């Protein structure tokens, strides 16, 4: 291989690896078990839903001189159906969510760094195949209109970073986290969430 090609190849590797392994900056994936609370509609209550969503995560320090603070930026996706309670509303939901959560580390004990966080959930949800159901759970009448809406929620989270590996700048991070989402604008998806993220 010619020397200029070798140098170009090495420069390409460095260009992509440096941001990934910069101190305090991580990229990864997350899986979440959500327990979504019911929503009240004119035709009745929707049911509660326990489902799994998947997403991408990026974290970076808010202030590089203070390693107790960092941003948690996440993009999450879920698609599922919500069974209706008696005299409630059946519907199917697809949700795209951008989550912005500043986090504050409570300390650093060996491989564990527990933290708390509070921020915003910005989502776009589509509710389709919507039906009113009777007291026996059977659909009746005319199909209800679909709902497409932007949603905003407050996010409160608690978790811990578990460092895997000895290199302080390039170790893996396993992050179990519990969050609660409280809808603020448009009565959207809210409730308890338990998640596990793996960051590189």
TrEMBL record:
This protein's source sits in the domain of life called: Bacteria
Q: Which residues form the signal peptide?
A: 1-22
Swiss-Prot/TrEMBL keywords: Signal
UniProt cross-references to Gene3D superfamilies, sorted A to Z: 2.40.160.20
Q: Which InterPro entries match?
A: OMP/PagP_B-barrel
Please give the name of this protein.
Answer: Outer membrane protein beta-barrel domain-containing protein
């Amino acid at each position: 291989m010619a020397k200029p090609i070798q140098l170009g190849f090495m420069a390409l590797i460095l260009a992509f690896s440096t941001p990934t392994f910069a101190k305090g900056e991580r990229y990864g994936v997350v899986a979440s078990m959500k327990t979504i609370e019911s929503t009240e509609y004119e035709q009745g209550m929707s049911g509660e839903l326990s489902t799994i969503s998947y997403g991408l995560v990026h974290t970076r320090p808010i202030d590089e001189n203070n390693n107790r603070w960092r941003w948690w930026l996440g993009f999450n996706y879920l698609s599922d159906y919500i069974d209706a309670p008696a005299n409630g509303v059946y519907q199917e939901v697809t949700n795209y969510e951008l989550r912005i959560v500043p986090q504050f580390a409570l300390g650093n004990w060996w491989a564990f760094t527990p933290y708390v966080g509070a921020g915003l959930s910005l989502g776009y949800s589509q509710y389709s195949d919507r039906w009113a159901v009777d007291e026996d759970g059977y659909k009746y009448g005319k199909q209800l209109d679909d709902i497409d809406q932007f949603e905003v929620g407050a996010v409160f989270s608690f978790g811990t970073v578990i460092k895997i590996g000895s290199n302080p700048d390039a170790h893996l991070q396993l992050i179990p986290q519990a969050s609660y989402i409280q809808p603020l604008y448009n009565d959207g998806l809210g409730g308890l969430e338990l998640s596990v993220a793996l960051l590189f």
